[in-house]
Amino acid sequence: MQSQTSYELQADLRGAWLSIDLGAIRHNVWQLRAFLPRDTRIMAVVKADGYGHGALMTARTALEAGAEWLGVATVAEGLQLRSAGINCPILLLGLLVPDAYPAAIANGFHLTVADGREIRRIEAIATSLNQVANVNLKVDTGMTRVGALPSEVAGLISLVDSLPNIRLAGLSSHFAKSEEENEKNKENATERQLSIFRELQRSLHLPASILLHTANSAATLFHPESHYDLVRPGLILYGVSPNSKRSLPFPLRPALSLKARITQLKTVPPGVPIGYSGTFVSSRLTTVALLPVGYADGLPRCLSNRQDVLVRGKRCPIIGNISMDQCAIDVTDVPVEVGEAVTLLGEGIGVEEWSETAKTIPYEIICGLGMRLPKVFENEK
Length: 381
What we know:
The protein folds into two domains: 22-238, Alpha-Beta Barrel (TIM Barrel); 256-378, Lyase, Ornithine Decarboxylase, Chain A, domain 1, CATH 2.40.37.10. It has twelve helices and 19 strands. It has helices spanning 4-14, 22-35, 47-51, 55-65, 75-83, 101-106, 116-128, 150-161, 189-204, 217-222, 351-358, 362-368; strands spanning 16-21, 41-45, 69-72, 90-92, 110-113, 133-138, 166-172, 211-213, 230-231, 256-261, 264-268, 273-274, 280-281, 286-291, 308-311, 314-319, 327-330, 341-345, 375-378.
């Protein structure tokens, strides 16, 4: 593992960095653990490099704080965790291409399945490896994405039970609109999905050893009846609400902040266009500061001329079009120096604010960060 000094060195060389507060992730897991029924387990979802926060450090922190499972999207993500010595159960949340099954089974990953052909393929590979593959059968209760139809589930379970090298470990589903508030006197989409899953569960008479799980972050917060044996939080681990307009049952602490150092200052007279296409034209004597962060780093170009940053605690606007590697801000009203740190995310500017300005979802914002921005991990212990 890299030392803290090495992380900080990378940040110094780059001039822009993500600060990841592992203490915040720890706090969020503790709060979640206290909120859930004692017998409900936590699967920390760390796919997409821990939603841009660093999968390995996030995974270790979540497990130390009380999570028992990890969830990832790809075999490569799971292998990164296994190679670092993490041996807890890991669920591959999506379906795999055929060539990925041998590595997944050999490393003991739990597999998501949804049809008979896939189940037979897994059985054949597990037999050739002299292993027993654990599978979670996913049910499409209304998401219309991964999952078997409810009418197919009983037959698929019978198929799994008939095969010696495959074991049914869980039955799951996924919600399409669990962050939305209920309309008065109306059953919402999540309630309909839960009703389908509940009726299916009752009809199957599954043994207690089969884990039932349906809850993502929003369902975990807003639909306690969806908790079952295990919840699969992702976004809330990182301190971001799936719906910033709804009150939360416990406080979250954001774990991520984005900072960059000023690389250049210049003063321009009124009437000067700034950046590509000249979408901002100075209306006064303007001091422009340049930051070494752009859309290639995950700063959405659609925030151009629409989002503030913090300089010495004061909001200053991004001006002109955000470039691939740089952006400009107006610091006319704040005395600053080259090399001074500016906060783009954090200290009151949240991921939720960015996502609202960009007309997207918080997931897209945080997953887009960190492709080349170094991460500095704080409060590791």
